[in-house]
Structure formats: C-alpha cells, structure tokens
# Entry
Amino acid sequence: MQSAYFLQRSALLFFAAFAIFSCSNSVAKAFSEKDMIIMNVAVPAAIAAIKAYHRGENVEKAAIQAAFGGYIMHQGFKMAPKMQEESAIKAWQSKCMINFGASMAESAGEEFVFRMDIGPVWIIAREGDIKIRPGLNAVIAPLVHLIEGSKPDFQRSLRYGTLAFKRSSDPDGTLNGSSALAYSNANTFTTNADGAHAGHELVHTFQYRRDAMYPLRIGNFIKGLDERLGDSWVDDTAWSMNWGLQCAWADATGRSKDFDIPMEKEAYYLEQKYRDPWR
Ligand SMILES: [Zn+2]
# Structure
C-alpha cells in the first residue's frame, strides 16, 4: 500500500514538473494557443488519467472529464485580459468558469467537489454540504501586501472577485516601492489607483486557481504537513511553488523573471491575443 502511494506521488510530482516545463516550447519561441491547450486541457487530463490508473478506475472517463473541465477553464482564461473594459458580471462569470472547470478537472474520476477561492478563503461544496476554509497562501499573500504598504481596494475586489490592492505610482508609472507597473501574488493583485493592468494580473490569479489542482503544493513535500492541516486549511501553495521554480530557472539561465518565465508568457500572450487594442 505504502509503495503504491509512493509511486502515485512520484508519478504526480513528475507530471507537475512536466506541467511547468511542458511549455518549454515557449522558452525558445513565442507562446501559442497550443501551449495554452497543453496547460489547460492536456496536463489536467494526463494527471486525472494517472490518478484513475492508480486507483484502478476508468482511465478514459477520468481523462475526458478533466479535459472537458480544462476546456471550460481555457475559455475563462481567454476572457481574463479584457475584464478591465467589461462589466463586473462578466468578470465574475470568468472567475466562476475557471473555478468550475478546475473543480471538474481535479475531481475527475472521483465524487464531484466544487472548490472556489474567494479572497482569503475557499468555498468547498460536496454532497450538498458547504464548507468555508482558509487557504495557506490565500491568507499569507494579502497580509504581505498589507505589510508592504498596499491599501485594500474594496471596489475592485468586489468587481473582480479577487483581493485587489492599490498603491501610489511614481511619474514613470511604476508602483511606489517597486519596479513594476502592477503585480500579483497568488490570489491577490496590486495596481495603481486607476486599476491599470488589472486584466493581466487577473490572469495570474486564475493561474493560482489552476495550479491549486496540481500536486506541486507544499504538503506534498513536507512530511506530516497534510495531516497537521487536516480539514481546517486548504493547501493552495502550488502557484507559489511553481512561480518559485520558474524564477529559479530564469536566474539559473540568465533569463528575465518578468518576461521569460512561462507564467508571464502566458499572461502576455493572452493580453496580446484577446485584448484589443493592445495597451
Ligand atoms: Zn505578469
């Protein structure tokens, strides 16, 4: 039993690593629609298939459900970059599509569990029972933003369904105390007072939800952490682990963390392709 468990974890971790660099295509050339399909549809389907195989369940059925969920997620990603110009209803629609698609993909081959991140907590619905649990990353990230001196932006938080912060900006447009025009940290983002580049940052918060279904989370690396967290916390650390690894790779290969890592390439690709005109 123990070795089957170990094998499953190893296979899943291998695929998580594969997921990060599956877009290695994008390292050499521009990010494409094919890379998006790999990340949103093919990787979730492959992970669902491995999990179903190890549980002795129908592999094909699990892969199809994950692919279908992934495709819904894919449509949500395409909406994200233009949400600055769209209504709050549209922004929430895209957020719900991401969460529904990711929930379908991550529960493929198992009982359906709907999980949605809202600010520092996750809503988890299964069998008519709804639980609200804090997320490790979802609680820490907003605290970091507050400590850094960002101010909560309640209007934009409500509009995008994700915790938004604002900061004053310098004459060159960069945010006070940072070299970025806007930035995000897992489930949160910080912009200037006008909310410039919120669409780009929204893509990163959607990546946070997508990554939460991957086994790259910290509980898979620290022995006993899962048991300690139990049912009281959600381990939503995969986005940060993924980002950390991608940044380490950029450092090691002399590339830019702001432009060359797959996460950024995806956000810029979506902006250029689906937000017209490009600003
Ligand atoms: Zn970015």
